[in-house]
Amino acid sequence: MRVLVVGSGGREHALVWAIAASPLVDRLYCAPGNAGIAEEAECVAIAADDSAGLVDFCRRARIDFVVVGPEQPLVAGLVDALEAAGIPAFGPSAAAAALEASKGFAKDLCTAAGIPTAAYGRFRDAAAAKAFIAARGVPIVVKADGLAAGKGVTVACDRETAFRAVDQALIERRFGPAGAEIIVEEYLAGREASFFALVDGAHALPLATARDYKRLGDGDSGPNTGGMGALSPAPGLEEAQQEEIMARIIRPAVQAMRAQGRPFRGVLYAGLMLTEAGPRLLEFNVRFGDPEAQVLVVRLMSDLLPALLAARDGVLADFDLRWRAEAAVCVVLAARGYPEAPQRGGEIRGLERIDDAAVKVFHAGTRRAADGRLLAAGGRVLAVTATGADVAAARRRAYEAVARIDWPDGFCRRDIAL
Q1: Which CATH number, 1.10.3210.10, 3.30.457.10, 2.30.40.10, 3.30.1490.20, labels domain 119-186?
Q2: How far apart (Å, rounded) are the C-alpha atoms in residues 10 and 381?
Q3: Could you identify which of 12, 91, 102, 374 might form a hypothetical disulfide with 79, taking C-beta atoms 3.0 to 4.6 angstroms apart as the criterion?
Q4: Which CATH class is domain 191-313?
Q5: Residues 2-15: what's their mean pLDDT?
Q6: Do residues 374 and 368 touch, judged by C-beta distance below 8 A?
Q7: Into which CATH architecture does domain 2-93 fall?
């Protein structure tokens, strides 16, 4: 097969790395890719949101299958455009991607389908949102309704912070159209977890569990980010709870989407809070997580590509995947100034000094200079991922690898998987 992966981040590098190992693949491309992806696939200079350009390339290169990584092109209808052109693609339609494109849509679907989630209100008026906050009290959570690159969520421990988040979205328009409506919801206490399932429109196949670390600093301090690290399996998420998540959250969502005439095909990512009352949904995403994808692919024993094909083709009912017993930990190296104003262009050295076979460095935001130097080209730049007999061993390996990287402009959290 001739396969194209769409995207340029750490998630896409992880997908490329896994798909490149498939004996089904004759030629592997990535658009637009990055410096690390270029070592494992042929990168083509087409933006992930250039639907017409991607369709044209797929026709010229005789692409058999496309795997779309980021949420933005999914929400914009890239899969619809590819399928309309007769090019099979993995990922939801634009109609199904509404589960991530609008948190309000997802919350309303939860209410209709009886999916356990936090109590909430939807607001376009700042005064009404503030009245809701005053009535419910703090802590409370304020979210931009649309896509905000993981930065549209404020967990407010006091009223002033909550009101400020409302003003930033609805009055200052910090998130543009994505913040034209906000969700104000109950604060849930517990432990976060990420749960993934491949979905073929009717059936769902659970993947391994993971947990990501969204806050910028140690001890879960600072603003929300796209993710500063991850581990798999998620601690505290036992087999019985996983089946409860499938029965109460994943399958009802799949059935509800099908009943609405927008069947979901792709990977359904449930961000969860494991509360004393059981798992509660925080939000749905419609793609692999980043950096959760990195810890998932290094634990996957099975060939990923047939599973993605089965989801697209509607034949997941009798499909299965095998997973390694080892734990995996990912530590993200980000550019100083991230998430607001990351410093770009700094040279990264020392990757060749990482000689542990249990460590894989996925590139999330890198490029090659004309002279071959590796340069930072994004906010989250590298995802150092390691496996081990247990979480402690994987964590040790990951941080030992981080210590070998020479990048003065970079930083990471020091408490991932601690």
Answers
A1: 3.30.1490.20
A2: 8
A3: 91
A4: alpha beta
A5: 98
A6: yes
A7: 3-Layer(aba) Sandwich (3.40)
Report the residue count for the chain.
418
For the chain, give the mean pLDDT.
96
Mean pLDDT calculated for residue range 143-148 = 94
β-pairing verdict for 120-123 and 182-186: antiparallel
* pLDDT digits 0-9 by tens, 291-327: 999 999 999 999 999 999 999 999 999 899 999 999 9
224: pLDDT strictly greater than 90:
no
Asked if residue 335 lies in contact with residue 379, where contact means CB atoms within 8 angstroms, the answer is yes
CA atoms within 13 A on the CB side of 258: 14
Digit-coded pLDDT (tens) for 98-127: 999 999 999 999 999 999 999 999 999 999
CB atoms within 10 A of CB 223: 16
pLDDT for 148:
87
151 has a pLDDT exceeding 80: no
